[in-house]
Amino acid sequence: MTPPPALLLVGHGTRDEAGAEAFRSFVRELDERNPELPVGGGFIELSPPPLADAVAELIESRGVRQFAAVPLVLVSAGHAKGDIPAALAREEKRHPGTAYAYGRPLGPHPALLEVLERRLDEALGEDGHRSPSDRATTTVLLVGRGSTDPDANSEVFKVARLLWEGRGYAGVETAFVSLAAPDVPSGLDRCARLGARRIVVLPYFLFEGVLPERVRQQTEGWAAAHPEIDVRSADVIGPTQELADLVMERYRETLEGDLRMNCDSCVYRIALPGFEDRVGLPQQPHHHPEDPAHSHGHHHGGHAHTR
């Protein structure tokens, strides 16, 4: 019997072993929950297993020929727009007779907003006496990874706005831990200038890793210099049931839906101010050092997406 299209989870990778293991554990959990479905996952860089190994394993051990690849990332930055589609095209070339449909990043889905809200409640309840008025006197600083892609950075601001709507927080501000402004200390400075007396720093990351730990350290450093303000750190999203359900939703729509990447404000298609030189720029996959075909780049001009 021909197996159904495999769910192939694609992660960016991290130098933090705990973060990489959280991804691998999440893949194993999805595989166990869906015994009728081949499930695998790999990284495009930094962590084992590389995507090439994950694909080969599904082909060799499960007889998979069709793949539905879901990028386990929150925003559509360069990895989702260029690196992952190019890497999938490379695997299709490496394994003749296989085909790959490419799904959407997770994005500001309502289910993930609920998890973020829960993480904030957990941070507010650490002292054991959270009251309904706590939200009204709490400013949230949502901290994203940060990107050189303005479209990706704008998605984090969208999440902040959606998180603020109807939830009763004094405000939700935005910062980034790398590659984009404002950085974490600047974001905290802004919260203070706006009159915040309690700030919860909320990392917009799926799993723990180097960057969430950097967010935590920068938050602690700023808090030590501003003892008059109650500053707390919330946890990352983590391998929740909501995340598992959303991944399966992305898998189903990848097979059944009419998918479109967010191209309306993509720097590879639209000449945005300061990024005009990126229009039509060819995309290349990231190369994992353990990938034996790492020298074989795939031209991916204008990020036409693998289907």
UniProtKB/TrEMBL annotation:
<keyword id="KW-0456">Lyase</keyword>
<feature type="compositionally biased region" description="Basic residues">
    <location>
        <begin position="295"/>
        <end position="307"/>
    </location>
</feature>
<protein>
    <submittedName>
        <fullName>Sirohydrochlorin chelatase</fullName>
    </submittedName>
</protein>
<dbReference type="Pfam" id="PF01903">
    <property type="entry name" value="CbiX"/>
</dbReference>
<keyword id="KW-0479">Metal-binding</keyword>
<feature type="region of interest" description="Disordered">
    <location>
        <begin position="279"/>
        <end position="307"/>
    </location>
</feature>
<dbReference type="InterPro" id="IPR050963">
    <property type="entry name" value="Sirohydro_Cobaltochel/CbiX"/>
</dbReference>
<dbReference type="InterPro" id="IPR002762">
    <property type="entry name" value="CbiX-like"/>
</dbReference>
